[in-house]
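A reminder before we start the practical. When you read a complex entry, don't treat the lines as separate problems. The point of joint prediction is that each chain is placed relative to the others, so the output describes one connected object in space. Small molecules and nucleic acid strands, if listed, are placed in the same frame. In the example below there are two entries. Take a minute to note the order of the lines before looking further.
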Amino acid sequence: MTTINPSKQTALRTHTCGELNAAHAGRTVTLTGWTDVKRNHGGVLFINLRDLYGVTQIVANPGSPVFKTAEEAKSEYVLRVTGKVTLRPGANANKNMPTGEIEIEADEITVLNASQPLPFELGEHAGVSEETRLKYRFLDLRRPRMAKNMVLRSRLSQVVRNYLYGLDFNEIETPLLTRSTPEGARDFVVPSRNNPGEFYALPQSPQQFKQVLMMSGMDRYFQLARNFRDEELRSDRQPEHTQIDLEMSFVDEQDIARVAEGMMQAIFAHIGEEVSGPFPEMEFSDVMLKYGIDKPDLRYGLEIKDCSEIFKTSGFKVFSETLAGGGVVRAIKGPRAAVFSRGDMDKLTDLVKKAGAKGLVWLRYKDGKWESPTLKFLAEPELAALKTLLEAEEGDAVFLAADKAAVAAPALGALRKELIARLKPAQLKKWAFLWVRHFPLLEKDAEGGAWTFTHNPFTAPLPEEEHKLDTDPGNVRSCQYDLVLNGVELGSGSVRNHTRALQEKIFGLMGYDKTQVQQRFGMIVNAMDFGAPPHGGIGIGYDRLIGLICGTDSIRDVIAFPKTTSGACLMSDAPAILDEKQLKELHLKITE
Amino acid sequence: MTTINPSKQTALRTHTCGELNAAHAGRTVTLTGWTDVKRNHGGVLFINLRDLYGVTQIVANPGSPVFKTAEEAKSEYVLRVTGKVTLRPGANANKNMPTGEIEIEADEITVLNASQPLPFELGEHAGVSEETRLKYRFLDLRRPRMAKNMVLRSRLSQVVRNYLYGLDFNEIETPLLTRSTPEGARDFVVPSRNNPGEFYALPQSPQQFKQVLMMSGMDRYFQLARNFRDEELRSDRQPEHTQIDLEMSFVDEQDIARVAEGMMQAIFAHIGEEVSGPFPEMEFSDVMLKYGIDKPDLRYGLEIKDCSEIFKTSGFKVFSETLAGGGVVRAIKGPRAAVFSRGDMDKLTDLVKKAGAKGLVWLRYKDGKWESPTLKFLAEPELAALKTLLEAEEGDAVFLAADKAAVAAPALGALRKELIARLKPAQLKKWAFLWVRHFPLLEKDAEGGAWTFTHNPFTAPLPEEEHKLDTDPGNVRSCQYDLVLNGVELGSGSVRNHTRALQEKIFGLMGYDKTQVQQRFGMIVNAMDFGAPPHGGIGIGYDRLIGLICGTDSIRDVIAFPKTTSGACLMSDAPAILDEKQLKELHLKITE
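Here is the predicted structure of the whole assembly.
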C-alpha cells in the first residue's frame, strides 16, 4: 500500500497552523499560511500565521535574517515559515488559542505569494456590504465564521450519507439535462445544439426520476441533488439549491418519517445536540387552526384558540354576525403584553389587516380587570369564559379576530409571529421539529377554476378518502407531509400514486386528458404500466437546514458561491452575453 | 432516539427477497417483489419473487385460496406474499441461490400492481436493442447486471468520500450556473430571464471554482461534480458526466499522486482487488516513444523500440533517408505473429497508413530465418541487431516504421493496440495504472498559429523550465499529469499557476492581452492578487472508472439515465420544444 500520511503534511509544510502545542516544543517545523495579525512589540515582530485549521504565532527577532521578510509581509501575504517550536513564557501563553502554549522562532521565512491591499478587513465584525463580500468571495470565505460554515456543511453531508448507507440506501445520480414539465415553478432551460429549436430543462427536483428508480426496482434511493428554479429570489432562495432527496419502495408514511427523524438525530448528534423522536405530528387542519400557518415555530406555545362557542349569541354584532355567516372567532394570548401601548395595538391591528382580516379586537388584563375600546360590547360571562379558555392572567393581553376561517387563521398566524418577536417568550425547546400531515390533495387554482395539486401532482390521496375524488375532491386529504423545524419548512414528501388509473384520474381532475398526460408526464405513467411498486419519499432542503444549524438568516452564508437576488455571481460576472457564433450554432436570436 | 430498524423491514414487508434461509424455517413472513420466473410443476405453482436483494421461491398449492391469484400473476406483477418459511426437501434445495434452502408456502397473495406484457424479456441474454433498453430504462434497470452496476457505483462513491474525509478534505458544492469561459469544449448555456440577452454556462469542470476555493483558504477540497460538455458524443462520452474532483494547497505533484493512488487502492480493495503503489510514472516523451500514445495499456508489454542507430547507414534508402532528414525508425515486435498472412500484413499496413505513416515494413521470423518482401534491402548485421534489440524469437514478427517522430509514434501506437487485440498476449497485471507526467505546457493550435495549452490553461510550467517561456515556449514541460488505467485516461491534473504575473505571461503566449485576460478569466486572476497559495489537483472521470470496474465498454451501462449519441433521453423525450410564452419570457427566438 502507498503510505498515505494521515496528517496534513505536504511537500511545503510539516504541520498546519492549528496543531502545535507544548508537546512539540523543541521540534523544528515548517508551516504555511496567511499573514493575519502582525504586531511589533519592543522591536520583536509577532505574526499570527493562519490557515484553515488555526493560527500559530511566529516570532521574528530584530537580529535575525528573517526580520526583513517578516517586516515586509503585509496582510494576507502567503508565507512559508521554518523554525523551532518554543514554549511561551507562562504569562504570555494564550489559553483562548489552541496553539497558545507555543510560538515559532522563525529561522526562515519565504513569501510564497504577495497580496494587494485588501478591500475590507477580514475580522468578523468589520462592517462590509454583502455586495463587496460576494465580489471578493475568496476573501470572505477566509473569515473563520464562513470557513466554519463550509466545513460543517461538508461534514454534515457525510453524516447524512453514512446514515443512509447504513440503511442500505443507494445514491443514484439523476440527469440534470431533463425535460421541462409543468410541475410548479419556472424551469431553467438549455438549448440543444444538436436538436435545433429544442431545449433541455434543469430539474426542479429529481421527483420523476426518483419515482422511476422505484419502478426500476432500486428499492431505496437517495441523492444530495442540485435543484433549479427560475423564480424571483429571496434571502432563503437561490436559483440552484441542494436537497437531500430520498425515496423508498413498499412503505407507508410512518416508514419515511422514521428514516427522516433518524437522519435529523444523526445530524444534530454530530453538533452535540440531542433531539428526541418520534417528532410530534399534527393534521394540517389542526395546525392551521392552532398556529394559523402550515409551518409553525413550535419553540414557543402561544396557541390560537377557537372561541366561537363563547360568542355565538354575543351582543357584539361583529362577532355574532360573523359566526352566523359561517365564520369563526379566534383568539391568541400575548403573555405579559398588557404593557403594549395604544400605538403598539394600532401596529398589530395594521398587521392583521395586511394579512387580510377586517380588524383586531384586543384586551389588556391589568390590575385584575380588562381594559379595551371594545370592552363595552362584551358581556361579563363572555370575558370570564375567554379568560378561562386562554388562561389569561394579570399583565397579559388577548387578541381576537372574527372572520372566515381561511382569513382568521393566517391573520392570527402573522400576529403570533409578531408577538413572539416582540415578547421573546422563553423557548420550550431549542429545536422544535413537527410533522404536518394530510394536506388537502387538491385546491382551486389562482383563477379559481380548475383543481390543482397543493404540493406535488404525484401525491396519493389517503386510501380511505380516495372514493371522495368522484364526489368531493376538494375535501380529499392526501398522504402529503411537511417537516418543519423552528418555523422553517425543511422538507416535503408523500406517499405517491403507483397505479396509472389513479394518477390519470387525479390529472383528469386537474384538467389534463389522457393525451395531455401522456405528452407531459409520459415517462412516469408509462413506467406505471409495468409493475410500479407502492413507494414514497421526501426531499429536505439542505441549504435551509445548514442555515438553521449555523444560525444564519441567509442561506448565502452556507453556500460557497451564491448568487445575488438578481441571479448574478458578482465574482465571476455570470450571466454574460454570448458571441454571435455561439448564438448561431444554437439557432437562437435575442429579441427585445 | 427513534428506533431505526436496521433491517429493510417496512409497513408492507417483514423481509426482503434476499435474506431468508434455513434459520428462518417455521416463521411467518411477508415479502414484496416482482413476479420473475413462474413454473407449474405437477399442478403446484412456483413463483420466483424478485427484489433488489434477491429472489425467493413462493409456492402456491392447488387447493389453497391463493392459487387463483398466483395463477393470474404475470411477469413483473408486483406481489405481496405472506406465508410460512419452509425448508425445501434436500434434493430440491438450490445451492446457487442464497435463499435456495427455503421456500414460502403462501397463505396470502395480494397483487399490489399489475404489468402490461413486457416489450422485452429481462433475462441477461435476451437480445434487445439499446434503443429499446433506453426507452424502457425502468425495465432495463431491473436486470440484475444493471442493478448491480448502479449499487456498486453508489457504494464506491461512498468509499471515495470516506477516504477523502479521512484525509480532511471537505466536499464543497460549486455552482452549476456559471460563466462561459474559452477553456476547451463547447459549453451548454442557460438563458437568464432576469438578464435578457445574457446566459449562464453549465461548467465543463469546477476547475476555476476549485482553484478559487484554494485561494479562499479551504486547503483541501473535493467534489463528486457533474460536468457538462456540448460535444459530439461517443460510447465513452455523455453530455453530462461525473468527476471526482479534488484540489489541495501547499502541495507538489507527488502529494497529489499519493492521494489519488490511495483513493484507487481504497476503491479496488472494496471490490477485493489489491493494487500496489506508488504507481509507475513516465515522462510524456518516453511514453510517446515507447507506446506511441499518451494513454498506453500497460497490462501488456509490446514496447516500441527506437532502431534509428541500426539503420543510420542502411542501404535501404527509405530508412536512411528518413533518418538523414531528422526522422526516426522505430519497431515493435508481434510475439507469435509470424502466423499472420500476407492479407493480415496488408491490413496492418492500411492501419498505420490511416494513422498517417507512409508505410509499414514487416518481417516474420520463421524456421530460424527472416522472411519479408523488404528482406532484400536489409543487411545481415542490421537484421541481427534488430533481432537482438527486440528479442525476437522463432515465430515472432517485427514491424518497422520510418517517419518523423510525431508520425511514427502514433502509427506504431495504433499498431500496438491492434497487435494486442489480435494476439491477446498474456496480461502482466489485471489493473495497470500509470502516471504520465510533464506534458508540454504549450502546443501550436490547429491552425498552427498561436500557442495554446495542451490540457489546461492554469497548469504551471516545471519551475526549472519556466525561464524557457521567453526563449523556447514549445519546449517548456509542465506540471501536468494524467492517470491512465488499462489504456483509459482516467484523470488529469496539475500543479497550477498561483501568481498573476506567471498566469498572465502564459495567457500572453496564447495571444490574450491583459484586458482580454481580465475579461475572460477575471475571477481567477483577481483572486491571485490577494494571497493565492501554491496549489494543485486532479479530476478523475467517475463514469469511466466505474465502467472499467464493471467491465463494460459503454459508460451508458453505469449511468442510470443516459442520453443517446444524439443527446436524447428516449424515456423522457428530452430535449423538447418550448411554448411561445416561455421563449418570449426568455427573450429568445428560434432561427433556421
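Discuss with your neighbour: The CA atoms of residues 97 and 274 of chain A lie 28 Å apart. What might explain this?
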